[in-house]
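Follow-up to my post from last week.
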Amino acid sequence: MEVRVVNVRKEFERFPALHDVSLDIRSGELIALLGPSGSGKTTLLRLIAGLERPTKGAIFFGEEDASQKSIQERNVGFVFQHYALFRHMTVADNIGFGLKVRHGAARPSAQEIRRRASELLDLVQLSGLEKRYPAQLSGGQRQRVALARAMAIEPKVLLLDEPFGALDAQVRRELRRWLREIHDATGHTTVFVTHDQEEALELADRVVVMSQGRIEQVGSADEIYDTPNSPFVYSFIGESSSLPVKVDNGEIWLADRPVGLQAPHAPSGEALLYFRPHDVELLDGCSGCIAGTVAASRRVAGTRRVELEIGGERQRVEIELPVDHPAAQKSRVAFRPRRWKLFPAS
Amino acid sequence: MADPEIKSYEPHHESQSAAVTESRPVRWVAMGIAFAFLAVFLLLPLIVVFHEALSKGIGAYTEALASPDTRSAIRLTLLVAAISVPLNLIFGISAAWAIAKFEFKGKAFLTTLIDLPFSVSPVISGLVYVLLFGAQGLLGAWLKAHGIVILFAVPGIVLATIFVTFPFVARELIPLMQEQGNGDEEAALSLGANGWQAFWYVTLPNVKWGLLYGVLLCNARAMGEFGAVSVVSGHIRGLTNTMPLHVEILYNEYNAVGAFAVASLLAGLALVTLVLKTLLEMRYGAEIAATRGH
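User reply:
Got it. Predicted complex:
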């Protein structure tokens, strides 16, 4: 099921949580809403589910305007951050709940509900735990039950709010891979919210980066990482360093020295230069480079991170060096970013 | 079948670490004072009640209880409790539901209002009804014209009892529901349940022990209420006398055995309530712990 969010605005008591957000979600896609807390990602997910109503705008499921429909009519599977399993019901009763509350002919027989529950437990690899209560399950198992319960109603769209947020790192990685497999097997259109970029980049077909109630960028993991389109995305996704520079006739200057980078299309004036710490070229002589004094150096796994103080303003930037590179010990290091981007100075 | 999830709710009585434990004599003195106090002010009166009730033998005791006025008082008390407790169950659940699950204007005011019966003297609660429904009261003339009798009759007693016992269920449920939040209900709705199904299958089972606890306290108070009922009842023997009122009348007539016989029933009710309350607290302590206020 294709989902389209069209010019949606959401205010909570006059406080805007989402400003005019539009997003097309393709059928069968696994998409991540990624952002820091307060970016509006959970609000957007709850709007799609129908747990909140938009202040303005509309949400379409296929050709149908879903924004006028109640959450029951939308038929979405929602997995809550803290699972929200019914603690007084067994695992099987939890999974069967969505079928049991149906009315009239739509409600399967008790036997059929039990069969469906067992099937779904097989799918989430928890066979045999039908009679357990949620309190008797581990966090990862509860998460699986919550997903099975959401899938029991054969939802058009599957929505997950921070699905792995409450789990430890090991279980998290395991469940991530497993969710991808389930998604590929069932083909549900799936939207999940996360603040963990690794999770979003690894798992999702496309990532929606959000900040302060706006969508900053939508794209594949590669697009988001390699061509961030805003300073926010540059600094939020992966590591980044930035320096205030000047552009003069397509030439980039740091204070009174040319950096050796050309930006023929950038307007002259103040700008911010962004680059990745690991994506730099070290130079010996310096005619057109960024040069700084080593202020701090630390070992990070297979590389060495060096913090440089640049120029009279003592701007600090981080770059990454090979562990055995002599520049790591030198007090003065010159480099030039290999891949970089200019943003207007704010 | 006992719910297995209870295991994780077991109230844990953490033993005090050595550093904060007082010396032995200090502990003994503290415990001694507490027990002596309880013995003098709580246990002794209870013993006196039963002693006095049985002072002229078991025959006199049963005879006192069998008198028509006493039986009528017992019937009336049971009737009043049977009406006011279910009503307060419904009121209490609705009020708690509204306060815990929704945001609306005047919520703080409503919360304060629910506590009003606890902060007002029961006599005042009774007087309010007299001022409202009495012959000279606000609605007195209208009621009389329509032949409706509220004051000095069963409806007045029921109203006063409802007023006095209103907070018990609501106050038990509000913190519990607030703590549980809306997550489970939202999950139920997202799975296709309507509001009623979400309430019946999810909300109610989540609060059942707290609810039972509230009902228990509500019932004890409904049967034992004296002040408010005394004002609105009119003390008509055999008609509008509840058990607590009947105790007073018998006592004023120097019928000690009769008075204490009825009192022993009320004391028995209190003991049963206490045992049930303790059992509930032992098994479902954490679930109702949020609400220790009475």
